[in-house]
């Protein structure tokens, strides 16, 4: 049994422990917390299959050319409060698979799952390969500016991501930034609306807890979206925009805004709360244009029974995981995601003179 399989079995064995930790530190329900743990296990299993071996580009009687990959070095990982286990697994595993030691700084609002994950990892890895730092917002800038940390992988807001990019620029540090998103779901008339509505709602669990629950923590930033909708006199398909009538506590009621204009705050910005706009459309071209008219492009979805229609519309969407517009830099997941933790080098050998030359594309 390999160390990879042993550590995977250990994660599976502690499924209930991680579920309880997520419930405690994020407020998720048991089903939502266990769903995140199970998805983390699924991601772990998938990553065990990934690798980027050397590629022989040319090999004949005169020359041999090889593309090879070498680790960048120590990777700093900074994760947000939401989905703390899932995002930690999605960043730690690619780094370790590619040979990069890891220092992870979880959010101070949800540090326990990362602490537990690193505790398990240290049972199977050499000392120092994976470490965790738990603390306030001062740790992030220190990690970004540290000359011995070769790469930063960060998930959180666009505002903070821009500051990280600025701080990393003098060192030409490698970055993967998964930042804000304001994802459009384009629903075509041939779908079953109740089914599509349920699936779209489940999709919001990508940033739990949003529409997966009827209410969530309502801070001043989220509250501003409700107040703006009420002030501008928008119609509500569900709820009334009045957060004062919600259950006592720091909660926001589930609210659906009916056909707000494209320039409204609820359409153009990311509320990160359980309030969403719904806009009718008739012309395919006209619905794609506003869907793409956003400063971020983290993701998007098309809902139809016709695969050809879905493909045609999807190819026109300016969205993708991480790297579109202000939604971030780089990419994550899959074998191509491994490349962001690696130097790509080319080795060329001329058979005639029997010498080797290496060029490093960094």
From TrEMBL:
InterPro entries: Ald_DH/histidinol_DH, Ald_DH_C, Ald_DH_CS_GLU, Ald_DH_N, Aldehyde_DH_dom
This protein's record includes keyword Lipoprotein: no
Record-annotated active site: 178
The entry's keywords: Oxidoreductase
EC class name: oxidoreductase
Domain of life from the UniProt record: Eukaryota
Domain Aldehyde dehydrogenase: 10-204, 219-326
Name the UniProt record assigns to this protein: aldehyde dehydrogenase (NAD(+))
């Amino acid at each position: 049994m390999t160390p990879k399989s042993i550590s995977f079995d250990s994660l599976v064995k502690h499924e209930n422990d991680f579920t309880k930790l997520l419930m405690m530190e994020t407020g998720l329900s048991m089903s939502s917390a266990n769903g995140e743990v199970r998805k983390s296990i699924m991601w772990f299993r998938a990553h065990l299959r990934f690798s980027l071996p050397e590629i022989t580009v040319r090999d004949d009687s005169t020359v041999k050319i090889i593309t090879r990959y070498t680790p960048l070095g120590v990777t700093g990982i900074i994760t947000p409060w939401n989905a703390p286990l899932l995002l930690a697994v999605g960043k730690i595993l690619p780094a370790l698979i590619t040979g990069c030691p890891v220092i992870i700084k979880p959010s101070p609002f949800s540090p326990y799952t990362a602490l537990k994950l690193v505790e398990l990892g240290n049972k199977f890895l050499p000392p120092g390969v994976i470490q965790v730092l738990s603390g306030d917002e001062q740790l992030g800038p220190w990690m970004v500016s540290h000359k011995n940390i070769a790469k930063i992988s960060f998930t959180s807001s666009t505002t903070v991501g821009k500051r990280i990019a600025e701080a990393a620029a003098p060192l030409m540090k490698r970055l993967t930034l998964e930042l804000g998103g304001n994802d459009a779901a384009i629903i075509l008339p041939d779908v079953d609306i109740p089914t599509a509505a349920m699936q779209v709602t489940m999709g919001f669990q990508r940033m739990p807890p949003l529409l997966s629950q009827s209410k969530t923590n309502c801070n001043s930033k989220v509250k501003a979206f409700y107040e703006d909708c009420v002030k501008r006199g928008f119609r509500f398909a569900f709820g009334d925009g009045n957060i004062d009538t919600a259950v006592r506590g720091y909660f926001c009621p589930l609210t659906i805004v009916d056909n707000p204009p494209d320039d409204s705050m609820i359409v153009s910005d990311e509320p990160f709360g359980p309030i969403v706009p719904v806009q009718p459309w008739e012309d395919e071209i006209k619905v794609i244009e506003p869907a793409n008219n956003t400063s971020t492009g983290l993701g998007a979805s098309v809902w139809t029974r016709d695969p050809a229609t879905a493909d045609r519309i999807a190819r026109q969407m300016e969205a993708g995981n991480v790297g579109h517009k202000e939604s971030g830099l780089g990419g994550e997941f899959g074998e191509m995601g491994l490349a962001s933790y690696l130097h790509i080098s080319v080795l060329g050998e001329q058979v005639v003179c029997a010498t080797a030359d290496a060029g490093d594309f960094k």
